[in-house]
Amino acid sequence: MFDWLIVGAGFAGSVLAERLATQRGDKVLVIDKRNHIAGNAYDRHDAAGVLMHQYGPHIFHTNSEAVFEYLSTFTEWRPYEHRVLAQVDGQLLPVPINRTTINKLYGLHLSSDEQVEAFLATQAEPVQEIRTSEDVVVSRVGRELYEKFFRGYTRKQWGVDPSELDKSVTARVPTRTSEDDRYFTDRFQYMPAQGYTRMFERMLNHANIKIMLNTRFEEVRNFIPFRRLIFTGPVDEFFGFRHGHLPYRSLRFKHVTLDKPWHQPVGVVNYPQTEDYTRVTEYKHLTGQEHQKTTLTYEYSASDGEPYYPVPRPENAILYQKYEALADAEENVWFVGRLATYRYYNMDQVVGQALATFRRIEAAFPAKGGTRGILGAAAE
Fold first, then answer.
1. 128 vs 90, 162, 166, 300, CA distance in Å?
2. What is the average per-residue pLDDT within 364-373?
């Protein structure tokens, strides 16, 4: 009899497994349908020996000291400030848009925040009510910069025009009047020194934690006894798609190793105007690894395949509310993570959500044991 069955060995599931095992002495079974732990943050050394991310770049950044200190228990860190360039009009220009972007694109020599602000004011279009991703951008930087940097990229990434997406999508990408070319400005910006997978291995290395890979929830839910459940997969799948499928965007990756030390000047180059792929990642920028070869990932967005990103549209939010009501009615089940709560979370936000969930579990069940679960035939 396991105290907990945790579905998914990504950040949400692994953090909760570690907390439940080390802080409560609970017995935990973690399952994952893939053949590895670490979820989408999984990294590995490829055939050439280059450390790469199997599911595209994962850049750790947070303003939460609590999240950073918690993860520091399981890894040393490598300082890394992420920088992104976009290929626009034949030039590689900084993203988010900053003073350098504007000067290079327009052949200007703006030298202060105030000058850039004044220039952007001449470009901006008044929007009476900001509702969509398009509204966010054109009201700030105008139609031309929107077309060059945002519209094509967003259409590739999400499969719909920015005018059909919630404002939260492009609101995540600021516009700067300074020359700051860092993609993130968080207080803590680091990469796990030995990679994400090693961090997860340490997190899950406990006598009370058992891991089963290549295992789906439906294969074990009625055969392995457990008292309570933590589910980190798609919430609509848990309920048998009772109200229909929640829309997700998927990704496809093409990994390429080149026989040269470097390929591009920064870790990620975006392609908002050209190419079928959205971006190209070169991992040695992220990891600091020294190697005579380099590995790249070409990233393609897709409408089908593994669910990666909840699609932020009003009708999808309404559909999710139906599943949220079902989830709230479940006893002894916690839904945690991006897919289970149909929200776009950064890695640190998922860790924070998992730690908060553990605190709620502690409040609800302060002592080990407690009410026996009603999940799965064997749990009876």
1. 34, 17, 16, 34
2. 59
* Residue 299 exposed, middle or buried by CB count within 10 Å (0-12, 13-18, 19+): buried
CA distance 64 to 236: 30
Tell me: domain 2-37+204-246+311-379, CATH 3.30.1300.10, correct?
A: no
Distance of CA 349 to the CA centre of its chain: 9
CATH topology of domain 97-171: protoporphyrinogen ix oxidase, domain 3 (1.10.3110)
Q: What is the pLDDT of residues 168-178, one digit of tens each?
A: 888 778 899 99
CB 112 within 8 A of CB 120: no
CA–CA dist 86, 97 (Å, integer): 10
The whole model's pTM is what? 0.93
Q: What residues pair up with 51 in beta bridges, in sequence order? A: 45
- Quick one: pLDDT at residue 69? 98
* Contact in structure between 57 and 237 (CB atoms under 8 Å): no
CA distance 119 to 103: 11
Structure tokens at 285: 């920028």
